[in-house]
Write a structure and sequence with these properties.
Length: about 350
């Protein structure tokens, strides 16, 4: 399951360690074989091999995924892949398949992204998408005991109006209702192309959401420099997705550490999208030394060939962290999760128990 060179004991520990995943796009869990299967079931035409030879077969598509040249190169495949999803059960099954795999790899809590705008643009109803994903989340909670959170992303390459329409639909449907009950959608995020669109594109939405007490995160500092991270904080984000270029601004890094902002780092994604040359270049050591809180995540595992455990193992292989450092990483993931104190304490207890069990072994 995991091709890294970490020892059997480390692999066993990282597998057993109770993990939180905060950065995985459900549409990024569409494996190539499922893309072809759903395209055929739903009568969706994928690009013809003459238009794009990558779509000749499952094998050619998987092979092409190994050679992304940038974030935008990857996104061109990602936005085609998701067009095969049509029915509520397609969305439910996709989410369930991810949760099953995450559970096998030791995830106890998952906060998952989804991208409704692309589905709405091609005529899939908002409720079909949300109800399908909710169905997958509920099944994971009841059958696997994972706690889940849905985070709805706005796409930066589309006009502001499209995001505003989506925001107002979610409000009207009561899915972002934080008063007195558990909302259907627990947070809002921003993803897609980073360098190009204005840094504060979604400012009006974020300011409105902040007033309503909605949790806010944003992709920033992935390809773009640290000023994108600052812009995300200034419009109200309390979490940063990726954020690896934070190290270029020591003062901002100090602020992020002080304010206990969680970075959702995706080391294998960063390598696959050529943001860094190797996992060893991801500033894991610098973040640990500066007291910056971060979690380790898969981002788009079906496109980058690595689910969460492989990402953890890749970090261990590159940095040789200690048991105590892994404990801190796992605990910070829990502390930065959008869950209540009771669930946090439960997860912290499980981490403590697991680390104790491995103290004599590692
Ligand atoms: N959407 C899916 N994966 C993404 C990534 N790594 N960065 C920005 N947007 C994304
Ligand atoms: Zn992402």
């Amino acid at each position: 399951m995991c091709p890294s060179d970490v020892s059997t004991q480390w692999h066993a520990f990282l597998s057993a360690l109770p993990k939180c995943e905060h950065h995985v796009h459900l549409e990024g869990c569409l494996e190539p074989d499922l893309i072809f299967t759903l395209a055929s079931k739903n009568n969706v035409s994928l690009p013809s091999p003459s238009e794009n030879p990558a779509y000749t077969s499952i094998e050619t598509l998987s092979e092409r995924y190994g050679h992304f040249s940038s974030l935008d190169d990857f996104l061109s495949f990602y936005f085609i892949g998701m067009t095969v999803l049509k029915t509520q059960s397609d969305f439910a099954e996709l989410a369930w398949t991810y949760f099953k795999r995450a559970h096998e790899e030791g995830v106890h809590h998952a906060e998952v992204f989804f991208d409704p705008q692309v589905h709405l643009e091609r005529g899939v109803a908002y409720r079909t998408v949300v109800d399908g994903y909710v169905q997958g989340c509920k099944r994971a909670e009841s059958e696997l005991g994972i706690s889940t959170r849905l985070i709805m992303c706005f796409l930066k390459h589309l006009p502001l109006q499209s995001a505003q329409d989506l925001y107002h639909t979610a409000l009207k449907e009561g899915d972002l209702d934080f008063e007195g009950r558990d909302p259907v959608i627990h947070g809002l995020g921003a993803s897609s192309s980073e360098v190009g669109p204005p840094k504060d594109l979604f400012r009006p939405i974020y300011l409105s959401a902040k007033e309503r007490g909605i949790n806010l995160t944003a992709h920033a500092g992935e390809e773009g420099d640290a000023s994108y991270i600052l812009a995300a904080l200034e419009k109200g984000a309390t979490r940063i997705d990726h954020g690896i270029r934070l190290v270029e601004d020591p003062a901002l890094m100090e602020r992020i550490a002080r304010e206990e902002v969680l970075l959702t780092v995706c080391p294998v994604s960063n390598v696959q999208l050529k943001c860094v040359k190797s996992v060893g270049e991801v500033p894991i050591r610098k973040f640990l030394d500066a007291g910056v809180r971060f979690s380790i995540n898969s981002d788009d595992p079906a496109y980058f060939g690595a689910y969460i455990l492989e990402c953890y193992c890749a970090v261990q292989e590159a940095f040789g962290l200690s048991l105590a450092e892994w404990k801190t990483i796992a605990e910070n993931g829990v502390k930065g999760s959008w869950i209540g104190e009771e669930r946090k304490n439960e997860l912290l207890g499980r981490i403590d128990e697991c680390v104790k069990r491995f103290e004599g072994v590692l």
